[in-house]
Design goal:
The structure is a single chain. The chain has eight helices and eight strands; from the N terminus they run H-E-E-H-E-H-E-H-E-H-E-H-E-E-H-H. The termini are far apart. With 213 residues, it is of the alpha/beta class. Helix 5 crosses helix 7. The protein is globular.
Length: 213
Protein backbone atom coordinates (compact mmCIF):
# COMPACT_ATOMS: atom_id res chain seq x y z
CA UNK A 1 0.00 0.00 0.00
CA UNK A 2 2.85 2.38 0.85
CA UNK A 3 4.46 1.71 -2.55
CA UNK A 4 1.20 2.23 -4.40
CA UNK A 5 0.36 5.52 -2.70
CA UNK A 6 3.87 6.93 -3.10
CA UNK A 7 3.96 6.03 -6.80
CA UNK A 8 0.73 7.97 -7.29
CA UNK A 9 1.75 11.14 -5.44
CA UNK A 10 5.54 11.18 -5.92
CA UNK A 11 8.34 10.46 -8.36
CA UNK A 12 11.25 9.01 -6.39
CA UNK A 13 14.87 8.89 -7.54
CA UNK A 14 17.15 6.76 -5.39
CA UNK A 15 20.94 6.54 -5.63
CA UNK A 16 23.59 4.76 -3.59
CA UNK A 17 22.12 1.31 -2.97
CA UNK A 18 25.61 -0.10 -3.41
CA UNK A 19 26.59 1.64 -0.15
CA UNK A 20 24.13 -0.35 1.97
CA UNK A 21 25.67 -3.24 3.94
CA UNK A 22 24.56 -6.67 2.77
CA UNK A 23 23.19 -7.62 6.18
CA UNK A 24 21.11 -5.76 8.77
CA UNK A 25 22.29 -4.40 12.09
CA UNK A 26 23.36 -1.01 10.75
CA UNK A 27 22.13 2.58 11.10
CA UNK A 28 20.63 4.77 8.40
CA UNK A 29 21.01 8.40 9.52
CA UNK A 30 18.85 10.78 7.52
CA UNK A 31 17.83 14.44 7.47
CA UNK A 32 14.19 15.22 8.21
CA UNK A 33 12.41 17.72 5.95
CA UNK A 34 8.77 16.67 6.05
CA UNK A 35 6.00 14.23 6.88
CA UNK A 36 6.83 12.05 3.87
CA UNK A 37 10.25 11.06 5.24
CA UNK A 38 9.02 8.16 7.39
CA UNK A 39 7.25 6.18 4.63
CA UNK A 40 10.29 6.81 2.40
CA UNK A 41 12.25 4.30 4.51
CA UNK A 42 9.82 1.48 3.72
CA UNK A 43 9.76 2.44 0.05
CA UNK A 44 13.53 2.64 -0.35
CA UNK A 45 14.47 -0.49 1.62
CA UNK A 46 11.43 -2.50 0.52
CA UNK A 47 11.43 -4.74 3.59
CA UNK A 48 10.14 -4.79 7.15
CA UNK A 49 13.47 -5.57 8.78
CA UNK A 50 13.79 -1.99 10.00
CA UNK A 51 12.52 0.19 12.81
CA UNK A 52 12.10 3.93 13.26
CA UNK A 53 12.19 5.94 16.50
CA UNK A 54 9.57 8.72 16.55
CA UNK A 55 8.60 11.38 19.07
CA UNK A 56 6.46 10.24 21.98
CA UNK A 57 3.77 12.81 21.13
CA UNK A 58 2.72 10.74 18.10
CA UNK A 59 2.07 7.77 20.36
CA UNK A 60 -0.69 9.77 22.03
CA UNK A 61 -2.73 9.64 18.82
CA UNK A 62 -4.67 6.32 18.86
CA UNK A 63 -4.49 5.63 15.13
CA UNK A 64 -0.73 6.29 15.02
CA UNK A 65 -0.14 4.20 18.13
CA UNK A 66 -2.00 1.34 16.44
CA UNK A 67 -0.10 1.80 13.16
CA UNK A 68 3.16 1.94 15.08
CA UNK A 69 2.89 -1.76 15.87
CA UNK A 70 2.79 -2.61 12.18
CA UNK A 71 5.30 0.00 10.99
CA UNK A 72 7.91 -0.93 13.62
CA UNK A 73 7.85 2.50 15.24
CA UNK A 74 9.40 3.08 18.66
CA UNK A 75 7.95 6.02 20.54
CA UNK A 76 10.75 7.73 22.46
CA UNK A 77 10.97 10.53 25.00
CA UNK A 78 13.06 13.23 23.32
CA UNK A 79 13.55 15.36 26.42
CA UNK A 80 14.49 12.83 29.12
CA UNK A 81 16.76 9.76 29.26
CA UNK A 82 14.70 6.88 27.84
CA UNK A 83 16.55 3.73 28.88
CA UNK A 84 13.69 1.43 27.92
CA UNK A 85 13.74 2.65 24.31
CA UNK A 86 17.53 2.49 24.17
CA UNK A 87 17.51 -1.13 25.32
CA UNK A 88 14.88 -1.99 22.74
CA UNK A 89 16.93 -0.38 19.96
CA UNK A 90 20.06 -2.28 21.04
CA UNK A 91 18.12 -5.56 21.13
CA UNK A 92 16.62 -5.00 17.69
CA UNK A 93 20.02 -4.16 16.22
CA UNK A 94 21.52 -7.32 17.72
CA UNK A 95 18.76 -9.24 15.89
CA UNK A 96 19.94 -7.77 12.58
CA UNK A 97 17.30 -5.09 12.15
CA UNK A 98 18.13 -1.72 10.56
CA UNK A 99 17.73 1.48 12.57
CA UNK A 100 16.43 4.43 10.52
CA UNK A 101 16.80 7.66 12.48
CA UNK A 102 16.86 11.42 11.98
CA UNK A 103 19.44 12.83 14.44
CA UNK A 104 17.72 16.23 14.29
CA UNK A 105 14.85 14.75 16.29
CA UNK A 106 12.10 16.60 14.43
CA UNK A 107 11.37 17.77 10.91
CA UNK A 108 12.83 21.04 9.65
CA UNK A 109 10.10 23.68 9.81
CA UNK A 110 12.34 26.12 7.94
CA UNK A 111 13.43 23.46 5.38
CA UNK A 112 16.99 23.57 6.71
CA UNK A 113 19.04 21.13 8.78
CA UNK A 114 19.02 21.74 12.52
CA UNK A 115 21.81 20.77 14.87
CA UNK A 116 21.83 17.01 15.41
CA UNK A 117 21.13 15.46 18.79
CA UNK A 118 23.81 13.10 20.17
CA UNK A 119 21.74 9.98 20.90
CA UNK A 120 22.52 7.99 17.76
CA UNK A 121 26.20 8.99 17.78
CA UNK A 122 26.52 7.73 21.36
CA UNK A 123 24.91 4.36 20.61
CA UNK A 124 26.72 3.89 17.30
CA UNK A 125 30.10 4.56 18.88
CA UNK A 126 29.36 2.47 21.96
CA UNK A 127 28.09 -0.52 19.97
CA UNK A 128 30.40 -0.16 16.95
CA UNK A 129 27.48 0.10 14.50
CA UNK A 130 27.97 0.93 10.83
CA UNK A 131 26.31 4.19 9.81
CA UNK A 132 24.99 4.93 6.33
CA UNK A 133 24.28 8.66 5.79
CA UNK A 134 21.23 9.31 3.60
CA UNK A 135 20.13 12.68 2.23
CA UNK A 136 16.47 13.27 1.41
CA UNK A 137 15.41 16.23 -0.72
CA UNK A 138 12.03 17.27 -2.08
CA UNK A 139 9.95 16.15 0.90
CA UNK A 140 9.49 19.64 2.32
CA UNK A 141 5.89 19.94 3.54
CA UNK A 142 5.42 23.21 1.64
CA UNK A 143 6.39 21.59 -1.64
CA UNK A 144 4.61 18.29 -1.10
CA UNK A 145 1.32 19.75 0.15
CA UNK A 146 1.37 22.41 -2.57
CA UNK A 147 1.79 19.77 -5.27
CA UNK A 148 -0.89 17.60 -3.69
CA UNK A 149 -3.42 20.42 -3.89
CA UNK A 150 -2.61 20.84 -7.58
CA UNK A 151 -2.69 17.07 -8.26
CA UNK A 152 0.99 17.11 -9.16
CA UNK A 153 3.54 14.46 -8.28
CA UNK A 154 6.42 15.56 -6.04
CA UNK A 155 9.95 14.76 -7.19
CA UNK A 156 11.96 13.28 -4.32
CA UNK A 157 15.60 12.29 -4.30
CA UNK A 158 17.21 9.80 -1.89
CA UNK A 159 21.01 9.58 -1.86
CA UNK A 160 22.97 7.14 0.28
CA UNK A 161 26.61 7.85 1.04
CA UNK A 162 29.39 5.44 1.99
CA UNK A 163 29.04 3.70 5.33
CA UNK A 164 31.43 4.47 8.17
CA UNK A 165 32.07 3.58 11.82
CA UNK A 166 32.71 6.05 14.62
CA UNK A 167 35.77 5.50 16.85
CA UNK A 168 35.26 4.41 20.48
CA UNK A 169 34.83 7.17 23.04
CA UNK A 170 38.04 8.43 24.67
CA UNK A 171 38.28 8.64 28.44
CA UNK A 172 38.53 12.44 28.43
CA UNK A 173 36.42 15.25 26.92
CA UNK A 174 33.59 12.82 26.23
CA UNK A 175 30.90 15.49 25.72
CA UNK A 176 33.09 17.39 23.28
CA UNK A 177 33.91 14.23 21.35
CA UNK A 178 30.24 13.19 21.32
CA UNK A 179 29.34 16.47 19.65
CA UNK A 180 32.13 15.95 17.13
CA UNK A 181 30.76 12.50 16.33
CA UNK A 182 27.25 13.92 15.93
CA UNK A 183 28.52 16.66 13.62
CA UNK A 184 30.39 14.04 11.60
CA UNK A 185 27.15 12.19 10.92
CA UNK A 186 25.28 15.37 10.06
CA UNK A 187 27.98 16.73 7.77
CA UNK A 188 28.11 13.46 5.85
CA UNK A 189 24.39 13.93 5.22
CA UNK A 190 24.71 17.65 4.46
CA UNK A 191 27.35 17.12 1.78
CA UNK A 192 24.75 15.33 -0.34
CA UNK A 193 22.09 18.06 0.08
CA UNK A 194 21.54 21.28 -1.79
CA UNK A 195 23.15 24.29 -0.12
CA UNK A 196 19.75 25.76 0.75
CA UNK A 197 18.91 22.74 2.93
CA UNK A 198 22.18 22.52 4.89
CA UNK A 199 21.09 24.99 7.55
CA UNK A 200 23.15 24.77 10.76
CA UNK A 201 25.90 22.86 8.95
CA UNK A 202 26.24 25.11 5.90
CA UNK A 203 29.46 26.69 7.16
CA UNK A 204 30.71 23.83 9.31
CA UNK A 205 34.47 23.17 8.90
CA UNK A 206 33.94 19.43 8.56
CA UNK A 207 31.42 19.95 5.74
CA UNK A 208 33.95 22.09 3.89
CA UNK A 209 36.50 19.29 4.21
CA UNK A 210 34.05 16.77 2.78
CA UNK A 211 33.14 19.10 -0.10
CA UNK A 212 36.79 19.47 -1.03
CA UNK A 213 37.46 15.72 -1.12
Amino acid sequence: MIHTVLRIITKIEADGYENLPKQGGFVIAVNHLGILDTPMAFYALDNWNLFIPVAEKWGEIPILKWLGKYLNLIFIDRFHPDLKSMREMINRMSEGQTLVIAPEGTRARDEKMARGKPGVAYLASKMNWQIVPVAVSGTEDRIFLGNLKRFRRTHIKLTAGKSFVLPPFPKEKREEVLQQYTDEIMCRIAVMLLEKNRGYYAEHPRLKELLSE
